Amino acid sequence: MTTAKEDRTPKEPPTPERSRAAPGDPPVPVLDRRPSDEQLLAARLVPLRRPGQWVSAVVLLVLFAMLVHTLLTNDRFQWDVVGRYFTRAPILHGLALTLWLTAAVMASGYLLGVGIAAMRLSGNRVLRALSFGYVWIVRSVPPLVQLLFWYELASLYPTLSLGIPFGREFVTFRTAHMFSGVLAAYVGLTLDVAAFSAEIVRGGVLSVDRGQTEAAQALGLGRSRVFRRIVLPQAMPAIVPASGNLLIGLLKATSIVSVIAVQDLLYSAQLIYNQNFLIVPLLLVATIWYVVLTTLLSVGQHYVERHYARGRRGAGGGGGAARAGRGVWDVARANLSLFGATRRDLAGLS
Amino acid sequence: MTGGERPALNALDGDALNGDAVNGADRPLVRVRGLRKSFGGHVVLDGVDLDVREGEVTVLLGPSGSGKSTLLRCVNHLEKPDGGFVELGGEIVGYRASGGRLHELRPRHIVRQRSRIGMVFQQFNLFPHLTVIENVTEAPVSVRGTPRKRAAEHARELLARVGLAGREDAYPRQLSGGQQQRVAIARALAMEPRLMLFDEPTSALDPELVGEVLAVVRDLALSGMTMIVVTHEIGFAREVADTVVFLDGGRVVESGPPEVVLTAPRHERARAFFAAVL
C-alpha cells in the first residue's frame, strides 16, 4: 500500500523517520520519504499508550479481589452473626436515635448557623465580632469535649434561672436532671454544627457577585426577597456540597454520644457485644448501617446539586430540572425512583 | 434645553410619563443639590448639582474616577450620600426631612422609590439562575404583585421591543453580551419607571455588539423616557443627549447642550478630555 502511493509523493529530501520511533512502539512501516498529504489524511490516529496506568489498574484489581476474598472466606468475620443481628430491635432503635438526632441537630444547627452567618455579614461591628468569636471558640474545642461539658453542666451551674441580667430572678430550676445524655448530645452537636454551617453559608453568600444584589435592589425588590430569590439560589451551588459533607460527618459524629451512654446505633451494638463478646460482627452491623445511610445521603446530595445547577450549564441548565418551581419534594421523589422497591411500596400505600 | 418637545411615541411609557402630580410644570423630575460622597479619605463627589427635566436625556461624561457612576448610584440610593440630597418627583430619595434633619428611610420605603427608577449596569447583572422571561417578570410579580400571566405578556412585549422575541426561555449564559444587556433594559422597563439610569451600558461589550444596545437606548430616548446615561460614547452623546454634563474630580465642570459642551468647552480640563477621546 505504501509503495503504491510513494510514486505519487512529491520529491522531497528523505526525512529521518526512523529516529522518531520510540523503542516500545509497534514497528512502523519505515518510509524513505515524507508521507503524502493523502497518506496523512488517511492515517489512523493512535493514542499514546499508558502502560503505567494499566499496570497499576491490574495491581489494584488484584488487591481488591484479595480483599473481597478474605472478607468472604475468613469465617472470623462471622457474617451469619452479622445477618442475624442486622435488624434486631435494639440495633433498629439505636439506628432510629442516630437518624433523628442527626436530623434534629442538622435542622437546629443550620437555623442557628444562618443567624450567625448573618451576624458576621452585618454592618454592626459588635455582631460581627461576636459571630467571629463564637465560630472561633466552637471550632477550637473538640466536639467530644463540648459534649462532656454539657453533660457535666450540673456540676458547673447547679441551678439556672430566668430574670433580669445581673438583677432579680423570676424562675429558678435545678440542672441536675435537666441535661440527660440525649439533650447534652443535641445541644453540644447543634452548637458545633452551627459554627461550621455559619462558615459554609457565609462562604456561599460571599461567592455571589455583589452586582446581583445591587441589580435586585435597583429593581425595587425587598431585602428578604433579594436574599431568598436572588442571592440564596446562587449561593446554593457553593453551599450544598459542603453541607452534604457536614451532614455525613455529623451522621457519623453522632456516634461520640456513646461515651455519655446514649443508645445510638454504635452504643446499641456495643451493649450487645459487651454481653456476648461478638465484637467484630456487631461492629460490622453498625458499620454497614453507617455505609447505607451515607450512601443514601450522597445520592440525595447529587440530586440537590443538580437542581441548583440551573442556568449554569450552556444547554439550558440541569436537564429536566431546568424548569422553575421545582421544589424539594420533586428532588426527593427523583431520589426515590432510584430505589424501585421503595417506590413500589409508596405506590401500594396511595 | 430641548427635552419638552419630545413626543411620547410608545404607549408603554404612557403611565410613567403621566404620573406628574407632585411636580410643578417646570420643576425638574430629578434635582440633585450639593451631593457629596467620599470613600475612605477619597472624595468622589464634591458638591454636585444636577437637574433633569421630564423627558430629557442627560449624558454624564468625564474621565474615570470623576464620580459619574457614584452620582448615578446615589440617584437610586445604592450609595448613601455623605451630604446634599437627590430629589425625584418632589420626594427626597432615601431620606425623610423632619425637624431640620434627614432621617434615613426604612428599606420598604426605599424599595418603593427605587421601583420608579430603572437601572442598567455595565456588567448587565442579569440573574443567571433565572430564564430571560423570569428575569423580566421577577420585579413586577414580587414588588407590584402583578399576576404572573399579565407580567409575562408585558415581558414578551418588552422583549420584542428590544429585539429579543423568541428568546424568553433562554438562560442569560446562552446569550451574547449585547443580548444580555438588552434583556437588562427590558427588565428595568418592566417596572414602568419614570427615570432610567444607564451606567456605562456598552463598556463591557465587544465592539460589534455596541451598536445594537445603543440603538435600543436611542429608541427609548425617542419614546420620551427620562434618562441619565453614563457613557464614553461621545457620538451617542452628541446624537441623543439634550444635556451633556462633564464631571471632573467630583465636580460638574461643564453643563449644557451637546453642540456647546462637545464642540466649544470653556473649561481647560474638558477641552483636554474631548481632544483625547474625539
Automatic annotation (TrEMBL), chain A:
TM segment ranges: 54-72, 92-117, 129-151, 171-189, 238-262, 282-304
Keyword Transmembrane applies: yes
Bias kind Basic and acidic residues: ranges: 1-20
Matching InterPro entries: AA_ABC_transptr_permease_3TM, ArtM/GltK/GlnP/TcyL/YhdX-like, MetI-like, MetI-like_sf
SUPFAM superfamilies: MetI-like
Keyword Ribonucleoprotein: no
Source domain of life: Bacteria
Keywords associated with the record: Amino-acid transport, Cell membrane, Membrane, Transmembrane, Transmembrane helix, Transport
Gene3D superfamilies associated with the record: MetI-like (1.10.3720.10)
Stretch list, region Disordered: 1-33
Membrane topology of the entry: Multi-pass membrane protein
Subcellular location: Cell membrane
Domain ABC transmembrane type-1: 95-301
Family listed: Belongs to the binding-protein-dependent transport system permease family.
Protein name per UniProt: Amino acid ABC transporter permease
Lineage: Bacteria, Bacillati, Actinomycetota, Actinomycetes, Kitasatosporales
